[in-house]
Amino acid sequence: MLETGAGIVKVDGPAVSQREVNSEMIDPTLAFPPKPMTQVRSLDSQDRSDVLRVILQSDGPGVLDVPELDAPRIAIHIGRPVRMDCRHGKRSHSGLALHGDIDIIPDCVPSRWEMKEADTALVLRLGRRLLRDVAEESGFGDRVEIRSRFRVRDLQIEHIGWALMAEVQNGFPSGRLFMESMATAIAVQLLRNHSSVAGTNSLMESSMPRHKLRQVQSYIEENLRSDLSLHTIADVAGMSASHLNSTFRKATGMPVHQYVIRRRVERAALLLREGTLPISQIAVDVGFAHQSHLAMHMKRLLGVSPSHALRGCV
What we know:
By secondary structure, the protein is α+β, with helices and mostly antiparallel strands. Helices cover 41% and strands 22% of the residues. It has 4 domains: 1-33, no CATH class; 39-193, Jelly Rolls; 210-253; 261-310, Orthogonal Bundle (Arc Repressor Mutant, subunit A). The protein has helices at residues 18-25, 128-137, 155-169, 175-193, 210-222, 230-237, 241-252, 256-274, 279-285, 291-302, 306-310; strands at residues 3-5, 8-10, 16-17, 39-44, 52-59, 62-66, 73-78, 82-88, 91-97, 102-105, 111-115, 119-126, 149-152.
C-alpha cells in the first residue's frame, strides 16, 4: 500500500517525491486529458409511467457513449443546428442536426455521439413490453425489429414529443392516461414507419363494437375521479391497450385520453354551475390533481376559466 504525506510517497525501496511518481503514472499521450463533457438534464418524467420516460437534456461539446438498452430510444433535436458524428452500433452518420431532426436507436444497440458544440435533445425511452404488445396485437409476434435512423423527419413523432415535453413541464396535468396513450401512439408509429414490418397492412384500424364502447364509456364515467390507466380501461373492454386506443378513436373521433379530459371538464362545469363546492374541491372530484390543471383544460376546451363557470358563464 502507498502511504502519502507532505509530498513524499513511501514504497518498497528509497523514498521518492510525489512529483516523480505522478510523472511515471501519467500516460504521455494523456498529459492534457480532455475535460469531462458537460451534461445537464433539465426535465425527466422518471417513473411517472412504466411504458415511457421523457428526458430533456443538453450534452457537449464532447463525446457521449450510451450503452445498449433493452428498449428503443428516440432523440428529437432541439434548438440551433449542431454538427456531430453519430454511431448506432456499426452504423454511423456525420452532419448537421437541425431542430426537429429525429434519431432512432434500436434496443440492444449502443450509441456514440461526438458533438462539436452543446446539443439539446428530447429523449423518449419506450418500454419494450409495450412495443411487443402492440406488435403481437397487430399479428407480428416477436419478429419485429426497430430500424436505426439518423436525422429523419417524422411529424407525428415530433408533435407527440412536443406534447409530452409540455405535459412534463406543466406537472402532468393530463394524468397517467395521457402518457400511456402517447406511448402507444409512438409504438404504432415506429412499427408503421421505422421497423422491419413497415408498410404492411396488419396495422389497419378496426371499429369498436357498440357494446364495448358503451362498457368503456360507462367505466370512465364511474371512475372519472380515479387516476385512470389505459391498461385498466382496456381490461374492461377485453382488449389490448393499443387496440383500445385505435378503435376508440375511430368510434368517437378522439383518443381515450382526450375523451377523459373532456368529460372531466364538462362534469366540472356542471358542478361549478351548481355552486355548492369550491373550485379546488371540484378539481379533485373530477380527477384533476390540481386546480391549475382544471383551469388550463377548461380554458382550452370551453374558453372560460373555472371562476367564470362558477358565475354561470357556461
